[in-house]
Amino acid sequence: METRVKVVLHGDTLLLAGLHASLAAYTGLEVLCVAASPAGEELSALRPDVVIVDTSSINFAVFRLLLEAPAGLHIFGVNTAENRVLVWSGQALPASSARELVELIGQFSPKRADVA
């Protein structure tokens, strides 16, 4: 059975909608979209490997939810104005395409699956 990396796009911005359309084409990923303000339990119940947020629209409630995220969960902040992905560890890595984002997901996923 194929191991897929579960990616949750957290929010409802046009950027995240576009990422959903792009990332859904990668067979190694299971991509889900959730509203910008689900309860922490809802997000935890999805058991994502990676959560992606649009940093241009993040609010304090979402920020707090992500601060309380379980250990091992990788959080990526995307921002089109800066053409980069901010990995919650504090690393800022260049990414300007879906392919580059998929490579980062593969690099940081605990499953380390070939997500392409």
Strand order of the largest sheet: 2-1-3-4-5-6
Level-1 CATH class name: Alpha Beta
- Average pLDDT across residues? 79
Contiguous helical run count: 4
Helix content: 25-40%
N-to-C SSE series? EHEHEHEEEH
Note the beta-strand portion: 25-35%
CATH architecture verdict: 3-Layer(aba) Sandwich
Q: Strand pairing plus helix content: what structural class?
A: alpha/beta
Compute the separation of the termini in Å.
16 Å
Shape by Cα distribution = globular
CATH homologous superfamily descriptor = Response regulator
Biggest sheet record: 6 strands, mixed
Measured on Cα atoms, how large is the radius of gyration?
Answer: 13 Å
Number of strands: 6
CATH level-3 fold name: Rossmann fold
Number of domains: 1
Low-confidence sequence ranges: none
Layout of SSEs?
Blueprint: E1 5-10, H1 14-23, E2 29-34, H2 40-46, E3 50-54, H3 60-67, E4 74-79, E5 84-87, E6 91-94, H4 98-108
Structure overview:
The chain is α/β, with parallel strands linked by helices and 116 residues long. It has one domain (5-108): 3-Layer(aba) Sandwich (Rossmann fold). Helices cover 31% and strands 27% of the residues. The chain has four helices and six strands. It has helices at 14-23, 40-46, 60-67, 98-108; strands at 5-10, 29-34, 50-54, 74-79, 84-87, 91-94. It has a six-stranded mixed sheet, covered by helices on one side. The mean pLDDT is 79.
Attribute tags:
single chain; 116 residues; alpha/beta; Rossmann fold; six-stranded mixed beta sheet; 4 helices; 31% helix
